[in-house]
Write a structure and sequence with these properties.
Number of helices: 18
Distance between the termini: 48 Å
Structural class: mainly alpha
Order of helices and strands: HHHHHHHHHHHHHHHHHH
Mean pLDDT: 82
């Protein structure tokens, strides 16, 4: 399938994921006193990637007079949306209707309805995606565990009975199937799952240098083999050691990401408090500072904002960007719009802040509910790769031990080596699957999940082998 076809297949889910942000941006501009033209240009310039591309076409058609006016260009865009984007298109129509409303209360009502439609569309897409995971995940379970167990243990035992004739089972062929064909088949299924995920986002992937600690596998592998003269044990020890190094080396980044996520969530709640203070007539700077100081985790940010306001020389928007954009660009843009409105009217700015806070919290709540729908499946796949697979495959190796004396074609040592390498591959592809399901596709997330699963999986595998032998 070509790249263009893949993008078209993913477009409905990507647009549904971006719908709440797009409607929120339009609502922010309109409630802040701006026009629909300003909102469209803002999305085209700074909006979510897929929607920004579509809205740039609207701007270009309007400027080049391909369409007579902006509303006609938006209507044509909505009519050309692919199948599956009905809630995205309906939300846009409601937002466009709100732009023509003369009564502020009616405009607010229409914008809220547009936001609700976009959120319901994303929620329904998330539930559909969660329900569709049962079959592919069961296929991955069977292909990733049962097939290797049959190939590596049951088939050699069956060959002893003469079921396959005089020829013995070829371990090399079985190793190629286990280490190459099965992981490739699982990766193909994972790619199909990712294309249907409404939570998938186009975000920075980070640096591939996150995998650098795994280079420690080679020296530790050589040293372990010199000490124990057991390739399977050496592979397990070397990968466990490298995984521990990868986890420890990324602890600072993990803590920073966790703190950033918590701060972003808290700032969404803070907008409601800022709105209440602005409505009471408290100036913008004091409202923001007092609201931040009221939250223990944001006190440091309150001091940073106060310092920026003292040295910004009147450029409040730059001060807001310097403090908040590193945590959340969405929050920074929202505070900028609130500030611009507060210059004209504090009460209107307060209402805008409350509206934005509710909108951001509603989006977070919907995405959290979708993740909760997927949590059971994610836990099952994690447990499969980390515990169940090494337990079953380790026991399957132990089943071969009594048969070694009956046939020279059975080599439990080689089988253990192949399965130890396969378990590493299985942890890698399951880590990729979990990242795709959660919609957080970046190198650090994959390395963290893979390292954790490898440590548990290979430890269980080694313990089962030692106990059974």
């Amino acid at each position: 399938m070509s790249k263009t076809c893949k993008e078209k297949d993913r477009l409905p889910n990507l647009l549904l994921n971006e719908g709440p942000e797009v409607v929120g941006c339009i609502a922010t501009v309109l409630e802040g006193g701006g026009s629909l033209d300003t909102a469209v240009r803002e999305i085209a310039k700074n909006g979510p990637p897929c929607s920004a591309k579509l809205f740039r076409r609207i701007v270009e058609d309007s400027e080049l007079r391909i369409e007579c006016d902006l509303l006609t260009a938006i209507s044509r865009l909505i009519s050309e949306l692919p199948e599956g984007c009905s809630s995205y298109g309906l939300a846009l129509r409601m937002a466009v209707t709100a732009a023509d409303a003369k009564d502020p209360n009616e405009r607010t009502r229409l914008l809220k309805e547009a936001a609700d439609i976009s959120l319901r569309g994303l929620s329904e897409a998330g539930k559909t995606f969660a329900a569709s995971l049962n079959a592919p995940c069961m296929a991955i379970f069977g292909l990733g565990i049962m097939v290797p167990m049959v190939l590596m243990s049951i088939m050699p035992m069956m060959s002893l009975s003469g079921l396959f004739g005089a020829s013995a089972v070829d371990l090399r062929s079985i190793a190629v199937i286990t280490l190459v064909l099965i992981p490739c088949a699982v990766l193909a299924m994972i790619a199909g799952i990712n294309r249907r995920n409404p939570m998938a986002s186009v975000s920075p992937k980070g640096s591939p240098l996150e995998f650098l600690p795994f280079l420690m596998v080679f020296p530790v592998l050589v040293l372990s083999h010199m000490l124990f003269d057991d390739w399977a044990l050496s592979v397990c020890l070397s990968i466990v050691a490298a995984s521990i190094i990868a986890l420890v080396s990324g602890l600072r980044k993990d803590r920073a990401m966790k703190c950033r996520t918590k701060a972003e969530r808290d700032l969404g709640h803070i907008l409601l408090e800022i709105g209440n203070r602005l409505t009471s007539g408290i100036p913008f700077e004091n409202s923001v500072t007092e609201s931040l100081e009221g939250k223990k985790s944001l006190k440091a940010m309150a001091g940073a904002f106060r310092n920026e306001m003292q040295i910004c020389r009147g450029d409040v928007e730059a001060a807001i960007s310097n403090v908040f954009s590193s945590v959340s660009q969405d929050i920074a843009d929202s505070l900028t719009e609130i500030y611009r409105t507060s210059v004209r009217n504090l009460v209107e700015a307060g209402r805008l802040s409350i509206s934005l806070g509710r909108r951001i919290n509603d989006r977070s709540s919907i995405r959290k509910s979708i993740r909760n729908e997927l949590k059971g499946m994610c836990d099952t796949m994690y447990g499969t790769a980390a515990v169940f697979a090494p337990l079953v495959l380790g026991l399957s190796v132990s089943m071969l031990e009594p048969l070694k004396r009956l046939s020279e074609g059975i080599d439990s040592g080689a089988t253990s080596l192949v399965l130890s390498i396969y378990l590493c591959e299985l942890c890698s592809v399951i880590a990729l699957l979990l990242s795709f399901i959660e919609g957080s596709i970046n190198y650090r997330t994959v390395v963290r999940k893979m390292s954790g699963m490898c440590i548990v999986s290979l430890t269980v595998f080694m313990l089962v082998l030692r106990i059974s032998l």
